[in-house]
């Protein structure tokens, strides 16, 4: 298992959802929704969160299409992650960046919020963070399964 906290990131066109793991890397929790008013500013905010949570790993949702191919959305994520990596260097932080297949995470997040009877307005505010939780939780579950197999 990875030591230290991890961040999960769901990059959208207008917002970036962020989740954080507990210190043991077993549970993902929502942190923040970053409004994207420009890539450099949003990327700097994510770097601040890396520092705040002392994260060693950032798991970014990689938006493959249903056939497992990179679609148009991948380019948006690539641009954001390029700005993020540039901002990391500027602050002297080093983290491992992991791509994680995010197919259907927004759908799963929406279902979770509907099941919890969250209002439409609150769902709009929380959907990106919950999607980031799904991305991060999936990655951590995979790490746990792999460590149990030896």
TrEMBL record:
<comment type="similarity">
    <text>Belongs to the YqgF HJR family.</text>
</comment>
<protein>
    <recommendedName>
        <fullName>Putative pre-16S rRNA nuclease</fullName>
        <ecNumber>3.1.-.-</ecNumber>
    </recommendedName>
</protein>
<keyword id="KW-0690">Ribosome biogenesis</keyword>
<dbReference type="Pfam" id="PF03652">
    <property type="entry name" value="RuvX"/>
</dbReference>
<dbReference type="InterPro" id="IPR012337">
    <property type="entry name" value="RNaseH-like_sf"/>
</dbReference>
<comment type="function">
    <text>Could be a nuclease involved in processing of the 5'-end of pre-16S rRNA.</text>
</comment>
<dbReference type="InterPro" id="IPR037027">
    <property type="entry name" value="YqgF/RNaseH-like_dom_sf"/>
</dbReference>
<keyword id="KW-0540">Nuclease</keyword>
<keyword id="KW-0963">Cytoplasm</keyword>
<dbReference type="InterPro" id="IPR006641">
    <property type="entry name" value="YqgF/RNaseH-like_dom"/>
</dbReference>
<feature type="domain" description="YqgF/RNase H-like">
    <location>
        <begin position="4"/>
        <end position="109"/>
    </location>
</feature>
<keyword id="KW-0378">Hydrolase</keyword>
<dbReference type="InterPro" id="IPR005227">
    <property type="entry name" value="YqgF"/>
</dbReference>
